[in-house]
Amino acid sequence: MKKVWRCKVCGYLHEGEAPPEFCPVCHAAASQFELVEEVASQHPAAAEAAERGLLQEMRETFVPHAVFAHFPNALIPTALLFLLLALIFSLESFEQSAFYLLLVGLLAVPPTFVSGLFDWQKKFAGEKAPIFVKKILLAAGLLVLLSTAIIWRWLDPQVLADGGWPAGLYFILVVAMLACVTLLGHYGGVLVFGRLRSKIAEK
Ligand SMILES: [Zn+2]
Question: What pLDDT does residue 103 have?
Answer without folding.
Answer: 96
